[in-house]
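Justification of computing resources. Each target in the renewal requires a structure prediction run like the one illustrated here; the chain below, 165 residues long, is used simply to show the kind of job we budget for.
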Amino acid sequence: MGGEANKCKERLNIMQPVTTVQDQIMWHPPDIGAYKLNVDASLHIGECMFTLGLVVRDDRGQFIRGNNMRLAGEVSVMEAEATDSQLVVHALDTENVYQLEVGHIIDDCKEKLNERADLSVLHVKKQANKAAHLMARVPCLLNNYNYFISPPDLLFEMLTSEFPT
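Resulting structure tokens:
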């Protein structure tokens, strides 16, 4: 009987869902009393445009504001990905001078960050940046922006499931 019970346990273990590391990566709230801004970019290759999505949430995960912008123009992948690149976060945190195509943007950001001790820049993996990713996909007219004081329907379910109140 003991052998059969072990075989049964083994079969049940095989049937259990496997949790991957990616499944465990999720959005985390800022410190109490603080806000968190998540940003994502979406390139529209061949269409000469790009979209940015921004979402601000509080320490309880509540949607505070959101924005998306669709802008005309060609941007490099490096420029677009500068919004959520771990390399850029590292560049902002060092004294190095960058000669890359986004070097002037990094310098401008460093200057602004030096003016505000209450701001910080952190990189999060895309699995923890779903709200900004979706916000970049909310329909928007070219060379225009949408300003949201409540989450668009596209984000509502994700925000609720990601950080329930």
